[in-house]
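Retro notes - structure team

What went well: the batch runner handled both jobs without manual restarts.
What didn't: labels got mixed up in the shared folder, which is why I'm recording both outputs here explicitly, each with its sequence directly above its tokens.

Job 1
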Amino acid sequence: MSAFFDLHSYTDVVMHADSILQRIEDGSMPCDLMWSDQQVALFADWLAAGMPE
């Protein structure tokens, strides 16, 4: 995963979705506050659903 990508960009998030999920699951992202289990599950469900825009 590139060190820099725009989380406000659908294209960037889709390109890095697997890595983002891995990092939010292990707690290394975001750097300021861990996501709740519900937030992680929501992102994982979005990814599994084909990442609809």
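Job 2
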Amino acid sequence: MSETETALRRRFIFSSCWSVPDCLVVGPWLEVSVTVWFIIPSLSFQAADGLVKVQVALGNIASKRERIKILYKKIEDLIKYLDPQYIDRMAVPDAMKLQFILAEEQFILSQVALLEQVNNLQPFLDSAHIKAAPDHAAKLQRLAQIHIQQQDQCEAVTENVRVLLEDYNKMTLLLSKQFVQWDEMLTQLEAAKQVKPMAE
């Protein structure tokens, strides 16, 4: 057996004594890390003996002190109260959370349908054409620049058309006013012509 295999075997045997792979639990409030690779045989036994003595000493201290026994009993409550989600659970009970979920049932189902659709379309995303897209990045950039130029030209043409329409509307309004004036003048001339023969 090689030195590395021996070290691994000793580490496994040592850890299995407490049924904890990477740490020696001497109390709910204290964990002593023992993740050590015991490559030197003499040090491995010294470390194991030292840790056993520490565990025994802490166990004796805990058994003699009443406060530590009480603390053992309250550890679960302390862990529960220290949980950041404890207040959320108190403020929003499980029944209310269930009502929230049921109220969003249709939305959740619609999202599930969309996710299934995305999953069904996944082969298209993995197609050779999509994978070859980075190779066409230069052409795409050139097309994007042409598109921007065409947008600018379109905006310029739109502005020119707007100006022409404004001029057309102004000209139409002026012609309408002129035609009204001409109609009034023609009406007056016709009226004067009819009055003149009657006077003779």
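One thing worth noting from job 2: The first helix runs from residue 3 to 16.
We'll revisit the folder naming next retro.
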